[in-house]
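yo, L,D-transpeptidase is done. seq:
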Amino acid sequence: MTGVIGASVAWAGTLPAAAATGRTAAGEACAVATGPYQKQVEKLLKLRVDGSQSPQDCRVVQAFQRREGIKPANGYASRATLHMLTVAAARKNPNAGGRCPVRNRRVACVDLTRQLMWVQQGRKVVYATVPIRSGRPGLETRNGWHSVFRKKRHDISTLYDNAPMPHSQYFSRGQAIHGSLSNLFSGPGSAGCVNLRPGDAARLYKVLQIGDAVVVFGRKPR
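structure:
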């Protein structure tokens, strides 16, 4: 089976074709259009919050996009950019709100509201915060306490057109945490699984073991 600030935010990763572009000092394309998440992006990047794209805004946003591997890195305040800014803001202390239980054992914390996850053992983060894509309306990722009961490095979906599910770790019946080869920041969501970027899924596969806890909480933005 196969994306943030506030529950009303959703995201996509591309600049509309009609949006105009300019050039940065380095000669690379830079969006001059104001993005749909301009104010939220300005606030998180500590820019002047006026909801209007400026050349300075574009340069700062573009630099962040390059660091995080967001494509296109054009300075446009897209959903993907807001999603990754939310992830970046959470990295220092992802459990600041105390939503994920602290235990001596490993706990994979899946935050549907912010569309991110991490793994902690006690108060130590043992797998840093990464973006996710959870289940779309009608096929939501199930909340609550779960545990990893099956791992498969190379798996495919028998329900959804034999879609690849690399580094699958099942935690609730047919729902698994696994890599996705599609754009993580596009579409309404998965078919219930927790999608990760392939590299993130590969790293997580080495961290979690059979029996480790998976706690899913919050609600995916619409």
